[in-house]
Every structure is written in structure tokens, then in C-alpha cells.
Amino acid sequence: MENLEKYIPHKSIHLIDTWIKELEVIVKISKSRTSKLGDFRVLKSGENQISINQDLNKYAFLITITHEIAHAFVWKEYKRSVKPHGKEWKNIFKMLMLNFINTDIFPEVILKPLGKHLKNSKASTSTDLKLTLALKKYDCNKKLIIADILDGETFSVHNGKKFVKLYKIRKRYKCMEIESARIYLFNPLTTIDLIQ
User: Whole-prediction pTM value?
Assistant: First the structure.
């Protein structure tokens, strides 16, 4: 098992270790993955494994590992008879997370959006804009996202296309691709490079 002390808040270590031992789950620290922050899987050997991205700040790491531990508890109890992010998972995830909802573990700025998130947790914390923005404040390697720039600024995305940010429509940003003048809608959390 990985030593988790450098990845999560100190006062959460004992409980996380207790759950990992109870579930007999292997914890693997993974390179950064753009498609997911962590996962739970049953290996061909029958062992259970959780993997978590190494580049998460300690608060995002704690939420993610607790999310995956909830999957392990659901697997132990129900195997494949329930949905992966169904009511059983939501209830267990909320129950586990309530152990950490205090200022000894999370900064106040994270507690409010985290509390709202736990009322009806989604499959990924990344879909919760307020929680993601609160967690992002504690990232070491801050990545620029579209929500960080002003309307009218020019940016590029990973495929090299260049855009002008126009304005926000409900939950997304309307942007125009410079070369084609086509309009695109972007998630506020889209990672970008600012063009000066």
C-alpha cells in the first residue's frame, strides 16, 4: 500500500487507512490522467485496487480517494447488482465524507461547496463547478481554465485551435474559433493557454 501521508490532510489519515485495511484494497498512485481523477477496479487476481492521480492537491485527493473507497464498499456489499453511482454509492460516499466535514480537515472555502455537493453527489467532482473552483485554489501546478480569463481574450486549446472568449450562456462559455468563425460552447473548467 502507498504511504498516503503526503497526499491527504494529516487528520484524515487514520480513518482512510482503517477503511483500506478493512476492504483489503490496493492503493496505487497514478500519473495524471485527463479522463479521470481516480478509479476503483477488481483485478483479474480478484484483488480490489484504487488508483488516484498523483497531481491532485490534498483536499481533492481526499475527496477522490473517499469516492473510490465508497465504490469498494458498494462492491463488497452489492457486487454488480446496483448502479456504479446509484443511491447505494451516494449514501455510502456521503456517510464516509461526513467524517471529514470540519475545519480541522478542509478549509472553510471548500466546506460550503462540498456540503452542497454531498446532498446529491455526481459521478465526478469535476462536474461540480463551485466545488472544483474551490479545490483549484489549492493546486500547486495551477492550470489556466476558461473561467479564469476575461471576455474578449484569445486562447488556444490542446488541439491547437485558437478562440476568442465571448460571453457566458448559463453554465458554458460561448467562444468563436478564429480561423473558421464557428461558435463553440466550452465548459468553464476547460484547460487553456492564453494567447497574448
Answer: 0.82
